[in-house]
Amino acid sequence: MKDLNYQLKQLCRRNRDGSYSTQVNRVFILHQIANQLHSLGYRGMTTQSLKPKHVDALVAHWVGERMAAGTIKNRMSCLRWWAAKVNRQNVVARSNAFYGIPDRQFVSNDSKAVSVSDETLAKSILRQGPYEPPTSPPRPPMPGHWRSCA
User: Fold this and answer.
1) Mind listing the pLDDT tens digit for each residue in 6-16?
2) Signed CA dihedral, 82, 85, 90, 93: sign only
3) Interatomic CA distance for residues 53 and 39, integer angstroms
4) pTM
5) pLDDT digits (tens, 9 = 90+) for 30-45
6) Residue among 6, 85, 73, 98 nearest 48 (CA)
7) How far apart are CA 148 and CA 150, in angstroms?
8) Residue 150 gets which letter from DSSP?
9) Where are the domains of the chain?
10) Which pairs with CB-CB distance under 8 Å and at least 24 residues apart come from 95-102?
């Protein structure tokens, strides 16, 4: 395990903020961040060595991967938590707009409806055949049930 990964894991163990699922997600995201920093060429980092250039490189990497805005915002939240725990809050900007991260889009503007021609619809209905309800024999009454006494 890389030093930064281990130190971030220990930081999460010492600071149990939030629900259990939040804690687990935070450990996972910080582990991803540490691996991405390592792959971006930042080696030999510690938890105390977080700098604005690291945050800028991560955001550029995430935007380059075309990640959803919500995913980037969740990861930024973990970065801010990390910076706060090592007393380096000023390393990460308070606003996501500073990094050009767009707002979340909860509802899609694109229609998910599929257009089907009348011909195709008629063919699919003919392939299925007429509707036949399932037939099954009636169940016998349960012994000891009040309806079985009649």
Assistant:
1) 999 999 999 99
2) positive
3) 15
4) 0.70
5) 999 999 999 999 999 9
6) 85
7) 6
8) -
9) 3-99
10) 96/72, 99/55, 99/56, 99/59, 100/59, 100/63, 101/59, 101/63, 101/69, 101/72, 101/73, 101/76, 102/69
